[in-house]
């Protein structure tokens, strides 16, 4: 765009030189007209570039993976593509989840997180985009050796009420409003960690906790990425597990509303084209 404007300015300047040869006939009005024409073009050429938004990610297959200079995956792909489609300057940065959340809370820059569930309290320091993806209902992942200990629980409430079992949860993380509320109400025996999901899978295999919650689309990929085999784990599905939650971009309030509107418009175009539409909300 800047190169185009500079070219236009050069062309106008050439015209201005020819016009100057006739100034003795037309007087100052011609010079004033040329200056008035040049000024908006020069202003555009010299206008500062729009600052880039930092799009934070963690490597979390199949949700977020690096691909070339951008991101791919169930949430990383549409999030990065939305910035490109909306023509919002963006830079990607691998950042631990807890540090991402702290950056938004402290409002240190123009930052966005990928694949975030909606929580009312987070709207105090951030802006949510339209949903970029919706999970399937969560499952329970446990080491194969723990299968008998978990087998007698018919519902997720039964499992949470068994204080002999330890639920592994990520610090400051949301499992979606219904599950967050259930965990808060039943207060299962918990072990909290700041680690990302691949490290959490390893902790489950090593017996540092007994089970964790995970989206089905992530489980098989995460087990393999963590260096294990599917047979090393058991995946339990409960009929009363709440529906999967929608995932959004969550951006700091330093990201202007106008930019969020452009991103929302781009997300709508992308999700309208996707084979699996994002329902609800």
What would your notes on this structure say?
- The protein has three domains: 2-46; 53-133 and 246-273, D-Maltodextrin-Binding Protein, domain 2 (3-Layer(aba) Sandwich); 139-236, 3-Layer(aba) Sandwich (D-Maltodextrin-Binding Protein, domain 2).
- The protein contains eleven helices and twelve strands.
- The chain has helices spanning 2-20, 23-26, 28-46, 76-86, 97-106, 147-151, 156-161, 177-186, 197-205, 216-225, 257-273, and strands at residues 53-57, 65-67, 70-72, 90-94, 111-116, 126-134, 139-143, 167-170, 190-193, 211-214, 233-236, 246-252.
- The strands form three sheets. A five-stranded mixed β-sheet has the order 4-1-5-12-6, with helices on both faces.
- The protein is elongated, with a radius of gyration of 27 Å.
- 30% of the residues are buried.
Which terms would index this structure?
3 domains, five-stranded mixed beta sheet, D-Maltodextrin-Binding Protein, domain 2, single chain
């Amino acid at each position: 765009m800047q190169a185009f404007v500079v070219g236009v300015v050069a062309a106008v300047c050439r015209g201005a030189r020819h016009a100057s040869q006739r100034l003795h006939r037309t007087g100052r009005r011609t010079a004033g007209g040329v200056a008035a024409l040049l000024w908006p073009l020069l202003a555009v050429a010299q206008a500062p570039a729009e600052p880039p938004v930092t799009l934070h990610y963690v490597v979390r297959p199949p949700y977020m993976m690096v691909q070339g200079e951008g991101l791919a995956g169930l949430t990383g792909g549409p999030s990065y593509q939305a910035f490109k489609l909306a023509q919002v300057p963006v830079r990607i940065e691998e950042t631990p989840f807890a540090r991402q959340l702290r950056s938004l809370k402290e409002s240190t820059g123009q930052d966005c997180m990928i694949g975030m569930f909606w929580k009312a309290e987070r709207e105090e320091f951030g802006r949510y985009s339209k949903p970029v993806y919706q999970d399937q209902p969560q499952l329970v992942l446990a080491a194969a050796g723990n299968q008998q200990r978990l087998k007698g629980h018919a519902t997720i409430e039964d499992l949470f009420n068994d204080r002999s079992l330890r639920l592994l949860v990520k610090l400051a993380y949301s499992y979606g409003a219904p599950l967050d509320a259930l965990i808060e109400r039943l207060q299962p025996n918990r072990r909290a960690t700041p680690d990302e999901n691949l490290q959490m899978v390893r902790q489950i295999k090593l017996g540092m906790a007994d089970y964790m919650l995970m989206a089905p689309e992530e489980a098989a990929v995460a087990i393999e990425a963590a260096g294990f085999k599917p047979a090393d784990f058991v995946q339990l599905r409960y009929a009363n597990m709440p529906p999967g939650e929608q995932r959004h971009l969550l951006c700091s309030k330093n990201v202007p509303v106008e930019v969020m509107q452009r991103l929302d418009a781009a997300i709508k175009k992308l999700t309208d084209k996707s084979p699996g539409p994002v329902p609800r909300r």
